[in-house]
């Protein structure tokens, strides 16, 4: 399918969605968000895709929602059309594992999109920020919520109240990103991780993802109970039996995704 604001490809069970509006540092206009939503939904429904990598350009993953698209709207406009709500959370709702590969600026909505992925792999050039406060507004897609859960109150307050950016090493220390690599190695590393995930038993990977996500929506006791029951449920998969047999027989497992 031909897109205007993104590029897509698949390689060995891994889908890549590249934000491609470099002249505006991948500012997330309505068209880009709609295209990204359509592409992500399509890959999520494709059983041949075992992991999705979302990435941007070298200078910017995305510098935020498109400020020029928002500037002339009034409250009545944004409330009436439920402004930029459609498609914004698609990435967070997928069952397929997702990786955000971030180089350069991930600001405002760009930081929020990255945080919707299951993990962030960052180039050493990455800069994360929620600068909405500097343009007279606040985040609208998780910048006060997912960021706070990821990095804690103090760093989230600092970022949300000053709009200042943090670098990749700070993001790594704070737990916002899983890994930092030299910029030139970003895609190789993101694709290596994605291929590893795509090469495992897909139904088991999906329940592992679901179990981790329950940690954000439940008490510890409820989460542990969910994990225990889901662990028991993996014994219904042929792949669980195959994985343990392969270990005991010192061979590679042959996953059936069943
Ligand atoms: N929107 C529109 N255009 C942008 C943009 C943005 N966010 N960021 C950059 N651009 C454009 C610039 O206007 C410029 O265009 P031209 O002037 O060449 O036409 C081009 O990209 C290159 O940018 P600069 O010339 O500014 O490049 P610099 O290297 O000098 O600076 C920068 C890079 C990233 C520091 C700077 O561009 C910048 O500060 N950008 C804005 C960052 C920002 O404030 N981001 C937050 C936007 S508000 C919601 C979902 C999401 C949101 C809200 C609600 N719902 C689901 C309800 C999100 C809101 C936001 O993200």
Oligomer: single chain
Bin the strand percentage: 15-25%
Name the ligand types: 4-(N,N-dimethylamino)cinnamoyl-COA
Mean pLDDT: 97
- N- to C-terminal separation? 30 Å
Number of strands: 10
Largest sheet: 6 strands, mixed
Helical content, roughly? 40-55%
Report the principal-axis shape. globular
> What are the low-pLDDT stretches, counting only 5+ consecutive residues below 50?
none
Helix-strand topology string: EEHEEHHHEEHEEHHEHEHHHH
* Alpha carbon gyration radius: 19 Å
**Helix count, per DSSP?**
12
Structural class determined from secondary elements: alpha/beta
Strand order of the largest sheet: 1-2-3-5-7-10
What would you say this structure looks like, in words?
By secondary structure, the chain is α/β, with parallel strands linked by helices. It has twelve helices and ten strands. The strands form two sheets. Strands 1-2-3-5-7-10 form a six-stranded mixed beta sheet, sandwiched between helices. It has a four-stranded mixed beta sheet with strand order 4-6-8-9. The chain is globular, with a radius of gyration of 19 Å. 4-(N,N-dimethylamino)cinnamoyl-COA binds at residues 24-25, 27, 63-68, 84-85, 88, 105, 107-109, 112, 131-132, 135, 140-141.
């Amino acid at each position: 399918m031909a897109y205007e604001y993104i590029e897509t490809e698949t390689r060995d069970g891994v889908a890549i969605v590249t934000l491609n509006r470099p002249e505006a540092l991948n500012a997330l206009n309505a068209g880009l968000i709609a295209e990204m939503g359509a592409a992500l939904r399509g890959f999520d429904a494709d059983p041949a895709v075992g992991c999705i990598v979302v990435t941007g350009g070298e200078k910017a993953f995305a510098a935020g929602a498109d400020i020029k698209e928002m500037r002339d709207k009034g409250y009545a406009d944004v409330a009436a059309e439920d402004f930029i709500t459609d498609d914004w959370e698609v990435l967070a709702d997928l069952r397929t594992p997702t990786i955000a590969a971030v180089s350069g600026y991930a600001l405002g909505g760009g930081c929020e999109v990255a945080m919707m992925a299951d993990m962030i792999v960052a180039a050493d050039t990455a800069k994360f920020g929620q600068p909405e406060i500097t343009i007279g507004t606040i985040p609208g897609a998780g910048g006060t919520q997912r960021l706070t859960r990821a990095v804690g109150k103090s760093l989230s307050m600092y970022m949300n109240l000053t709009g200042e950016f943090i670098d990749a090493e700070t993001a790594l220390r704070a737990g916002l990103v899983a890994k930092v690599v030299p910029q030139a190695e970003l895609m190789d590393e993101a694709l290596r991780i994605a291929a590893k995930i795509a090469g495992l038993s897909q139904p088991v990977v999906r329940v592992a993802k679901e179990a981790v996500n329950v940690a954000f929506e439940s008490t510890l006791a409820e989460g542990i109970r969910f994990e225990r029951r889901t662990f028991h449920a993996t014994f219904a998969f042929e792949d669980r039996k195959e994985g343990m047999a392969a270990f005991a027989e010192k061979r590679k497992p042959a996953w059936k995704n069943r």
